[in-house]
Amino acid sequence: MKIRTKLFLTMSVMIVLLLLFLLGVTHAQFYISRDFAYLEDKAAFESLKKEFEQFYRDHGNSWEHVGDARFEYSAPFAGIVLSADGNFLYQQGKLSADELRNDGYKLVLASGDKRIGRLYVMNDSQFKTYEFKKMWYGILPNIGIASLLFTFVAALLTIFLLSWRLTSPIRKIIAGIEAIKKGDAAAIFPEQRKDEFGAIAKALREMNDSLAAAERTRKQLMSDVAHELKTPLMIIQGELELAHETGAPLSPAKQASLLDEVLRLSRLVHDVLDLSRLEAGMMELHPRTENLVVLLEDVTAKTRFMAEDKHIQLSVHAEEENIPVSVEKSRILQALYNILSNAIYYTNPGGQIRLHAETVHLPDRQQPYACIRVEDNGVGIPEADLPHIFNRFYRADHSRARPSGGTGLGLAIAQQNIVAHQGWIEVESEVGRGSVFKVYLPM
């Protein structure tokens, strides 16, 4: 159903409900006014009631000849009807018996404990209200018809203007969505509006920006992966083509070099797959309680040969012998290995790297956290590079030749592993003085 049709039906229903409301108010107002008129002139009503009851007793507990009687207190009333045993025995005034029975004020007549009949009466004040009620009921159908005709005309104009104004942002939003479907990253939405349409437009624009950013990231990833694969593949291809053309066997040194390139390709593929699974939330964790101090000693043992090659002093310090954390050992070791190997690479020969573990209580957290600090006195990270060091394939040292190091995914994988354990990484660095990586894990 179109918006214009819905608006028209809504306005029509509102008019009908308004008329019914006015009808109900008029009906209720009549009975309220009737009862108030009784309270204002209650003595006259009671006097008339007593006069009829006295007539009944004076005639031997009978209403015989009541129709011919004259009652002293009947003057203030515009209409009087006496009903007894289902019959109308007395009637006086301008109104019919049925009208009085339906809209008159009822007085119950009694003689002792016996109910002897009912009086339906209406004084002048009540009669005026009753006449207004009849007049209103008489003209109400005409008012209703005129209102509906007026509403129909006014609704058509109003609905046309409202629907045009209401559907205008919808048309713009649809046009923007169509532009997105066609690949237009600069789709325009009516964000300047302060209503729900503006909120929808803003949400769609943010979604479009996210999609565009994801597409740029995808293209950049493809470009980076292709670039990383290109060099080792060219080396392998060149060596094999040369060996094939000359017929000379590959020397052990050449075989070792080719094996290094194959291993580099294998590491790149595994790192890309790991990072993709972590970012997509597809890496299922199986945490167990581990001693963080032992984990640091394990990762130090695995990287010590790298530190010794550069004569770097590597040490582990812990405030407690046992700092329990619930983690998947292989994932945390991978994260710590990537951070530590990165520190070793960027620390000059003869430098030092210090690993420190402790339990900390953070003011904005309820539970305690384990904090691992990896401190080095290496080259440091420029301030402009700090926000990007956890991006895929990003290197703070732009002069670093790609074949000489890792895949450029180490810190990105480390961060995703830590986040998967409900933790986070903080970095402080100063060029020429070194860096401090802080890893927080829930206890």
UniProtKB/TrEMBL annotation:
Topology in membrane: Multi-pass membrane protein
Keyword Transport included in the entry's annotation: no
Catalytic activity: ATP + protein L-histidine = ADP + protein N-phospho-L-histidine
Stored SUPFAM superfamilies: ATPase domain of HSP90 chaperone/DNA topoisomerase II/histidine kinase (SSF55874), HAMP domain-like (SSF158472), Homodimeric domain of signal transducing histidine kinase (SSF47384)
Entries under InterPro entries matching the protein: HAMP_dom, HATPase_C_sf, HATPase_dom, His_kinase_dom, HisK_dim/P_dom, HisK_dim/P_sf, Sig_transdc_His_kin-like_C
Recorded GO CC terms: plasma membrane
Keyword Transferase attributed: yes
Protein name: histidine kinase
Protein species of origin: Brevibacillus borstelensis AK1
